[in-house]
Design brief:
globular, 72 residues, mainly alpha
Length: 72
């Protein structure tokens, strides 16, 4: 349920639903200062949730060059 709460405003920004244009509103970055805080888990769940929506395409990029984990 919490991912749905996060996903709705992100989709509204990305699709310009409310009429206000946000530059690069279709880009989402998940970050934190420490390892093990759930960034990969959150990114994967958001990407899967958005991709499940009708007419939405998602590209998930793991930018952690030192320790990539999204493919796992």
């Amino acid at each position: 349920d919490q991912y749905r709460v996060i996903k709705r405003p992100l989709l509204a920004n990305a699709t310009n639903r409310d009429g206000t244009r946000i530059e690069h509103g279709n880009l989402i970055m998940v970050t934190s200062a420490l390892a093990g805080e759930g960034k990969s888990f959150t990114s994967i769940n958001l990407a899967m949730g958005i991709a499940a929506e009708l007419d939405h395409t998602v590209m998930l990029v793991d930018a952690d060059v030192a320790r990539p984990s999204v493919l796992n």
